[in-house]
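S.,

Sequence below, as promised.
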Amino acid sequence: LLVFTVALLGCAAKDPEDASDCAKMKTKELRRFIARKGATCLGCAEKEDFVRVCESSIGLEDVPVEEPAPRPPPDGDSKQKSIDDILAAMQGMPGMGNVKVFRPEDLAKMKDEFGDYAGDKDEM
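The prediction came back faster than expected:
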């Protein structure tokens, strides 16, 4: 019975019953509550703005929230393919025809071919 009472009180704190509860909530809690009710708070900058929207959304039904599907972890090959796709899409853009992105393998090859130039002013 005690656990049930504590759980019930915890739920009541999350869902304000009157305007005084909105004022007691932290801004982060206000944002979550407003989103859960499906309300928006465009232009809200101060806590008072969020409290005002919270008070106006008391009594609204909760909006079901869809969880975004988890993205698969990127592997090196798919990352490389996406870069190649981006560069291929950019070929038709003005000024992008001769763009070259150097990969680590390209830089290693250039180092072997041209040497390791550190940019010393004496060598210029």
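The chain is about 55% helix and 0% strand.

Coffee later?
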